[in-house]
Amino acid sequence: MFYLTAPAGIPISLHEVAEAARQDGCTHSGAEFSRLVGDMVGARYSFDFGSGRAALCSILRSLAMLSKNDRDQVVIPAYTCFSVASAVVRAGLKIRLSDIDPVTLDYAPEATVRMAQPQILAIVVCSLFGLPSRWDSLRSTAAKTGIYLIDDAAQSFGIESDGVFSGTHGDVGFYSFGRGKNLTTYSGGVAVTNRPDIANRIGAVQAQLAYPSRRSQLSTLGRLVAYSAMLRPEVYWLPSSLPFLGIGETVFDPGFCQSRLGDIEGRLGRLLLDRVDVLNSVRSSTARLFIDGLSSMESLQALGSAGETTLPYLRLPVLLKDRKVRDRVLISLRKAGIGASAMYPSTMADIPGIESYLASDERDFPGATAVADRLITLPTHPYVSRSDVYRTVAILREVIGSGS
Ligand SMILES: Cc1ncc(COP(=O)(O)O)c(C=O)c1O
Fold first, then answer.
1. Count of the separate structural domains present in the chain
2. I need a surface site. Which of 15, 195, 239, 266 has the fewest CB within 10 A?
3. Distance between alpha carbon 89 and the CA centroid of its chain, in Å?
4. How far is the CA of 187 from the centre of ligand 1 (A)?
5. Domain span at residue 312?
6. Confidence band of 377 (pLDDT split at 50, 70, 90)
7. Does some domain include residue 237?
8. pLDDT at position 402, please?
9. For residue 158, is it within any domain?
10. CATH number where 374 lies
11. If we measure between CA atoms, which residue out of 137, 136, 141, 135 comes closest to residue 153?
12. Atom number in ligand 1 closest to CA 176
């Protein structure tokens, strides 16, 4: 009853929060942090923002300015974080939803072919939980019609595939440093690109944004103290049982605040940046334990788990048989102190109030619907112990059985 693992997060000590709060003479710590991020991932240009969605919105505004014709549609997956849709709307563009493959969580191959259209400005590629995307086929679709590719690496910071870091696969990319991400500064985002034309525009858009006020920095400091103190399973059960805190909620809100990255977040990012490899390797090891434990169960599927190496999943995505089983499993795991989550509550097409922002009438996305109904994600962060993993596997066996 008094134990619950958080679905995601990273340990941050109070000492580190105090360090981040201390002025160190660096005038713009956010810009300095984004420079370090750019160096780490091999991007020539990098820009700090107050969140991943502010980074995406600025990228989209920049691409719309660069585009020679009036392209006003942005392809996004029919199942992804609702903030992606919020950023498209905030940039004044239309959302074009595209279905995903429920096993790879990447765009469905048949949907990719249909993206080559003259109204489309950009395709946003979200490598959910750290699962890789099929960049080759997207590149050939994009090249045919001059569409920009945006690498949304909000959930895959520090992960390499095809010899390059996530975030740098497309024409431009971005990271989120929000609470549940690979590395967190509580909130934050960085945009990266190697293209000078795109960088020039993003620089101009970013220059119009304000820095967070002193008051909002104080509130960030308070939230960081709470985050640092409450992520342990022995404490996390308390805030997570208070519904008015809205922990873990995902909302579609095009009116979000747009700003640069604050100094406190920038200093914290600088302090923690070197740790991302260790954090990601802990995630791989925990995911491996889960995958080994679940491997004999035919009635579920751990996504992206084929092969020898284990991805540093931000959370381990597992597909169950149907929504009923999924909901039963989530309740049982929570009772046992495991903060598994169903991730996003619906497909993008089913978000209340989104219709007027959609570029087409298409509402039927079977791949995205299957994921919205059947997905659970298991926590892989450093506060998850071996005994949490074994308990999770035992509960899954008990609730759904080991056979098909
Ligand atoms: C795939 C994806 N894209 C974009 C975002 C937006 O990032 P932020 O929450 O920092 O605005 C998130 C995170 O919430 C995300 O998971």
1. 2
2. 15
3. 18
4. 10
5. 276-400
6. very high
7. no
8. 56
9. yes
10. 3.90.1150.10
11. 135
12. 10
